[in-house]
Write a structure and sequence with these properties.
With about 190 residues, the protein is of the alpha+beta class. The chain has helices spanning about 25-35, 35-45, 55-70, 130-140, 155-165; strands at about 5-10, 20-25, 75-80, 85-95, 110-120, 145-150, 165-175, 180-185. It contains five helices and eight strands, in the order ββαααβββαβαββ. Helix 2 crosses helix 3. It is globular.
C-alpha cells in the first residue's frame, strides 16, 4: 500500500480553482479552522433544489463533518477560486466499517470509504471544481470500495458521479426526511 501524503495540490480545469487535499491531523485542523467558510459554501450549495437546506441545516452538516474529522481515513479537499482568495467548494469522506447499514467490508479487509459531501459554490459550478474536488478526495482515500449517497433529482451531482465511475447500488428513503436517496458505489 502506498502512503498518502498529508497534503497535495491540483488545479481544476481551466485554472478556475486551486484544490488542496488534506488527510489525518492536517485535515482535522483545517476543517476546524475553516468551519465558518465551509458552512458558507454548504449554505449556498445546498439552498436550492432538490436540497432546500436552511442555514441551520448547513451548519449541522459542518458539525457532522467536524465530528468525523478525527476518525480514521478522514480526507478533506478544499477548492479556492481567484488565486486563493475565496473558497469555491469542498468535499470530504472517511473510512467506514459499514456505512448506512448496507455495505459490506471489501474483500481486501480494508473496509469502505464513504464519500460524505461535495459542495461547490453556485458561482463556481460548471468550471471543473466539483470534478477536481471529487478526484482529490478519492485520491486521498486509498484503494478500497467506495460509497456515497445523493438525491436522485440532483442531476449535476449524479452526472458528475456517473462520469467518474460511480454506479447506482440502490434507492432508499432518507432517515432525515423520507425523500428518496441514491446509494452509489465505485471500486478503487
Amino acid at each position: 500500500m502506498t502512503a498518502v501524503p498529508e497534503a497535495s495540490s491540483t488545479a481544476a480545469a481551466g485554472g478556475a480553482a486551486d484544490v488542496i487535499a488534506l488527510t489525518g491531523a492536517t485535515a482535522e485542523i483545517a476543517a476546524r479552522g475553516l468551519a465558518v467558510a465551509l458552512a458558507s459554501v454548504a449554505e449556498l450549495a445546498f439552498a436550492g433544489s432538490p436540497w432546500h437546506e436552511t442555514p441551520a441545516e448547513a451548519g449541522q452538516m459542518i458539525d457532522r463533518m467536524l465530528g468525523d474529522a478525527s476518525l480514521s481515513g478522514f480526507a478533506l479537499a478544499i477548492a479556492f477560486a481567484g488565486h486563493g482568495s475565496s473558497m469555491a467548494g469542498f468535499g470530504y469522506g472517511l473510512n467506514r466499517a459499514n456505512p448506512h447499514g448496507t455495505a459490506r467490508p471489501s474483500s481486501t479487509g480494508a473496509g469502505v470509504f464513504e464519500f460524505c459531501e461535495l459542495a461547490v459554490r453556485p458561482a463556481c459550478c460548471g468550471r471543473g471544481v466539483g470534478r477536481a474536488l471529487h478526484d482529490a478526495v478519492l485520491q486521498a482515500s486509498g484503494p478500497r470500495l467506495r460509497w456515497l449517497t445523493t438525491h436522485p433529482a440532483a442531476r449535476p451531482a449524479v452526472g458528475l458521479y456517473r462520469s467518474r465511475g460511480w454506479r447506482t447500488a440502490q434507492l432508499y428513503p432518507s432517515n432525515r426526511d423520507g425523500a428518496p436517496r441514491v446509494l452509489m458505489t465505485r471500486p478503487w
